[in-house]
Amino acid sequence: MKFGHIVPASFYARDTEHVARDMLGMLLQCTTHEGTTSGIIVETEAYVGEHDAACHATAGLTTRTAPLYERAGIAYVYFIYGMYWCFNAVTRAKGLPSAVLVRAVEPVEGVDIMRRRRPRAHRDRDLTNGPGKLCLAMGITGSMNRQSLQRGSLVIRDYTSYPDSAVAITPRIGIRHAADWPLRWIVSGNEYVSKG
Length: 196
What we know:
The protein is an alpha+beta fold. It has one domain (9-186): Methylpurine-DNA glycosylase (MPG) (3-methyladenine DNA Glycosylase, Chain A, Roll), CATH 3.10.300. 14% of the residues lie in helices and 28% in strands. The chain has four helices and eight strands. The radius of gyration is 15 Å and the shape is globular.
């Protein structure tokens, strides 16, 4: 399959909210020894710095949060609940810790690989409709933390775009702090958007 160009680092070196909105319609692509999987990004959340109580950077600079303080356009992949990886794209300038969490993608490439990795998903729409699910299905792991999103096994490509009329903004979900902040972007009516 042929897809668009890899998104340059400069795309991410902007306000996190704008990056989160503009990532809708882009293609997240991951290549492992099992093959390549990809999906259209249909749900994102912005985490906007140390003042954001839901952002990991609220703890300051630590071993875990260090990628958030690095240059824009790298991966921040972390482990939650002792079970799942979550993928984020680091945004803004170096030293301004923030990122976009990719919460859901619509599978495009490597669907058979995704099904093998997630045998309990009875419907294709359940393969990647959540941040932990999409990482399992696509083979995204902590080994990709801090990787450049412009080269290597994990990249984001231009693919399609959605007009504002097709996009909804809601509070973030699955968090306790700053849960009312409207920093979640979804493609309205897309069946791959996570529940909540």
